[in-house]
Amino acid sequence: MRIVLEELFGITELPFLQGRLKIKPTVLKKEHTLREFIEKTKPGFFSTAVPLEPYSLSEELAFFQDAAKQTQMILHFYDPAYTSIQNLNRVRNLLTPDLRLIPIPFDATKGNKAELIYLIHTLTEWLEKQEQHLTYEKILIHTQYFKSRCTPWSFVAEVGPFAVVKKHRSMYKPPAKATFKQVYTQEDGKLKVHKTGELSELWQQILAAKTEGKQVWVVRKGVTVDLPGSDIVVDLENQTLPSHIPYVQAIFAPTKMSSL
After folding, report:
1. Spatial separation of the C-alpha atoms in residues 246 and 202, rounded to whole Å
2. What are the backbone dihedrals phi and psi of residue 151, each rounded to the nearest 5 degrees, phi first?
3. What domains sit in the chain, N to C, each tagged with a CATH number?
4. Does the predicted model carry a pTM greater than 0.85?
């Protein structure tokens, strides 16, 4: 099994995958790579949008034909706002039965990256233990089940880049001093600010809610503050979208995996 992650998520390696992770490049207009564009562009007073270009069907097919070498199954975590599920379904049909492509949607703008890493780990481990063929629908159901067992927490320096896709795909000037906002997603999908303050103080407050049998998964970007009580920590490059906007995303997840 191979795991394919979109470059948009900003995750370049995960130790527990032991070389099975493949990053799917983000396509930009005018033949730039995402890294080149971010490194060469200096944001001014206003934010600078990153000109993303979605994959065509032929580009999707070529990528997965290459990724399918020496494997029969690919678990692909993709951002529905960037990648067309219709194209992925066509690729699935074209490559069957030589390859089983399993697309798993994950919102790059509002999604919690710590939750994403937990899902990658848990789904991979669970799928490898299955002795019989599972339908795509059953895999999606289990994905939601594993997700439902997590308690997410997010602390961001700016709310806008995590509320609107266009703002998330932008570059910003680094803030002079980051005051963090603890945010959560309401039932209508909108972000709501719960508290504002110093990151270390906000972090200590959420640790009080941790219960026995849970471990803390953390993703940090542009943050050097120590976060005591963290079990798994992944640091992203500060240029990861939205560039130069610091944030911490965490979850309380079960120590032991269980399935439906």
Report:
1. 15
2. -110, 110
3. 2-148 (3.40.50.10170), 151-254 (3.30.1180)
4. yes
